[in-house]
Protein 1
Amino acid sequence: MDLSEIYTEIIAEHNKSKRNKKQMENPTVILKGRNPSCGDEIELALKVEKNIIQDASFTGVGCAISQASTSMMIDLIRGQTIKKAQLLIDTFLGMIKREITEEDQLEILDEAVALQNISNMPARVKCAVLSWHTLESAITMEEGKISESSQSSH
Amino acid sequence: MSNNYVNDFPILQKTMNGKRLVYLDNGATTQKPLSVINAVQEYYAAFNANPHRGAYELSVKATQIYEDAREKVRKFLGAEKTSEIIFTKNATESLNLLAYSYGMTFINPGDEIVISIAEHHSNIVPWQQVAKAKGATLQYLYVNEAGILTDEEIEKKISSRTKIVAVTQVSNVLGIINPIEKIVHKAHSVGAVVIIDGAQSVPHFTVDVGALDIDFLVFSGHKMLAPMGVGVLYGKEHLLDKMPPFLSGGDMIEYVWEQDTSFAPLPAKFEAGTQNVGGVLGLSAAIDYIEKVGSSNIEQIEKELIHYAIPKLQQLPFITLYGCEGLSKKTGVISFNVKDIHPHDASSILDADGVAIRAGHHCAHPLMQYLGVNATCRASFYFYNTREDVDALINALGRVRGVLGYGS
């Protein structure tokens, strides 16, 4: 295993960066994600309006892999539609599982492609995917709210 | 420089990522010497049969192997009778046996069960279950800033309401040895029984249940050279006798009628179903190996290793140590953190240098919360570790912050 494959400059930078790591005022959805076996814990906050993720941020503690993965994910989803966010989730998880390997398919992940080699470190895969699974659950919750309110408005 | 013990452990000859394996996770499980591996192999190659059942030679031999191992454990622990030695799957099962059989039977509403804040989850969760089911209170003995249980705390928390005191002899996170004599003395003065979690003590120094007057002791074989899947419960005969069975079924009965059963006497009463005879034979071989090395020698080797390692770690400005203030009452366990670096990253980076340590909460959430940390790194030594292993750890630690873009 070559450490420099995993702990790249991009990962180190995102790990240290506080840009996306902060409390959000008036989020529309907040969700905790945990890896009970290692104690990683993030809280993801989204502000979703008209199917668009207007803002996203996170708080919590975890290793460099989970912190960087979360920070890069937030850069990717901010300003995007829920549908695009779901595509990003599917692509990222597909990349980690090595089901998606084509460069042009992975292009939309931008910097997050830096985590492609995490599958060479099986013990750390769960750190990389924590925030993405949390986002998926948060989107499901948000969509539930939307369909509920549209049902009640009829 | 390596020692001669290393040669007896096949796995320690391995290289990891092209580097010599430096195994420093002995608190989680120890490696196995060839004599233990061979004993298990030989059992299945030459003696396998179901003990206590057949009247044919192999079954008789399997029974003999199993019961000889029980006698070996009795002697090893300084217990009075072989009927006081129960084989289980591990320390966790032994503790569950005590919680469900002793706790659920003898704990009443308003009673108190006393444990320490430094327990492994296996000695917390079963007692929470008992306390909830029986309307009892779970009381904690808190350690001081240095990780030590003080006399005042023991005096204060163990009272006439206390019915069970269940504490670990050695913290799996800090390696600090608790004052068991004082705890036993105080508990017995109020009529409580004492359960000692010996998972981190029995492998590392002599534990004499008779001399300590412990009521129950539990430990796992795999943390002392034996295979995984075999553990021990020691209990005083008069206490085990009055407890109901935990698991029921074959081999733990005397006679079964359509609606009722009379139970077998000790120790069979607590050993339902076919037991892990190969594992028990492995434990027997492990005890032989430990006795050959000598428990006091093991204690000495670990002491020398921490006396060598801790000053070196203290010289690294980016290392925070936990529970390393006094080294006299401590086994070969060192918990630490690297500044700005999560323990999992530290562990992955050390792994690239062949150094295997544990990172995380060590199945001790309440202690982590109490210490105010999310997780720690833990290096835990056994007698086959050497100063060379400590040097490898120190060298690898020097690299950790740089990998994540922090200056030293």
Protein 2
Amino acid sequence: MGNYLLRRLLIAVPSLLGISLILFTVLALAPGDPFEDLATNPNVPAEVRLALRASLGLDDPVWQRYLHWLGSMLQGNWGFSFVSRIDVDTLIWQRLPVTIAIIGASQILALMVALPVGILAAVKPYSWFDRIASTMAFVGFSLPTFFTGVLFILVFSIELGWLPFVFRADISETGWQWWVEQIKQSIMPVAVLGLFQAASWMRYVRSSVLDVIRLDYVSTARSKGLAERAVVMKHVVRNALIPVVTLIALQLPQLFGGAIVTEQIFRIPGIGSLLIDAILRNDTPVVMAVTFVLSALVIIFNLLADVVYGWLDPRISYT
Amino acid sequence: MAGSTPASATPERASPRSLTPWAEAWRRFKRHRLAYWSLWVLGLLVLGVLLGPLVYKVGINDIDFQARLAPPSWKHPLGTDDLGRDLLARVLYGGRISLAVGMAAMLIAITVGVIIGAIAGISRGWLDAALMWVTDLFLSLPQLPLLLLLIFLFRETLKNLFGLEVGIFLLIVVVIGGFRWMPVARLVRAQFFSLREKEFVEAARALGASTSRQVVRHILPNALGPVIVAATIDVQAAIIAESTLSFLGLGFPPDIPTWGRILYDGRDYMDLAPYWVLFPGLAIFITVLTISFIGDGLRDALDPRRVL
């Protein structure tokens, strides 16, 4: 097991390096200069500007700048936000928990919807339930998250007035009242993200279960006299889930995209809205760090998926 | 595989007489009723977007303060926005841009994907491994953050180079297409792996066909089916990506209405004018949904192993 993990880690490292290289190339190729403000400021003499550039290493060759940047990223020295005037890592640690909580809750919701619906649809293919579920799935992933978000706000906040549509980070209530408010304001973002995920996962689960359910060993299990429930749960689902795990892991990058959109709609102070704010305000260190953190998260979750994969499928040897 | 299940519940029947492959595909496609009707709906929508502005002659930027935030009426079938601009005209015009972005980004994604997939699929060894490593790397990039980053960084340069509209259009199309080629590349590579060992390719090789001839004349045409399906999905994904960018305020500038941009503008007036966000949203939804169904139908129609 340790060996297997180590090997997966060794594969993950070059990917991280590759991503950092891509990010840095984008930034190095980009026009625009962080010292533009200084250049147009008549109070700053040209020599001072040039000295400042040299002291920050902006005139070094590209590869030196890359190594320098990578070194400080790895040491946890992520720079200083131009706009907020605090360290980027503090900023990110402030924003990350909300995002992780919303994404995590929406994934649980998505699994709770997609698994039972997908399995039931596959057990009786082309039944009414299957047709309705499949059509709903198509509708679900054809509705972009920004439109469902807007629809939810229209219906539940504006028409019915049940749920607040602005996410508040500073809820004044304490104790259980705090939890009530917190859950109330999280329902819509979690539902928007979760149902969108559930729609595409349901199709994966369905087709994967369909692939397995007609195999010979399932017929054997049935002819042993096992109850249909036991056959489906113990024999079919466990094997059918193996490809689903990979597909779920592969979809993670898109999930962060969805999170950015939902955070923007409901004004959630998470890492996605931090990114958008930073982009709109030209706050380069924050933009780079956030993009890097999101990429790193994707790779970490891919690694986790590999581990789960090995646990689900004993045929994959750990050695 | 022992248990193969057709993707749709269509009755099995042997075709009575031999047809050309495309006629056969069309016959299979028509069996998928949802896909067939989606084709009609999408066709009407595209026609409306293309011909609509020729018939419905209201300017997209005609400001009429008398009719600010007017609900749908005979004069303004979809209502007006906060400057009194006619929403039907804007939705029709926005549709042209959204569809154009979808098609152009799809073409880029397919071209890059087919080229990379074909090179990886026909060459063995390190070139294949390197190309697949790059593909996997791109697959694990968080797309939306990078899209935002790229557009933010390169917007001004392209605006200066090609002018406002063309510059932004090029940037958005290239960036969206540049992040969609990976699935196509993997698909094409997998197809190449099985096709290049088939007898007919071997026969071509034995007759002395060069590698490029084998690829272009023999392997690629047979790998086309899944690529066409992937292309429909790419159009849909590109339309969603463009509207997402516009919705985040980082797509086309405000005076060029796209469906996402109209939605974004209408967001602040949801309580006063819900129709402002509903109509562009519905337009995106119908387009994406019909393309999904058509893709599903094509998947059934173009897979020759499937008996329909």
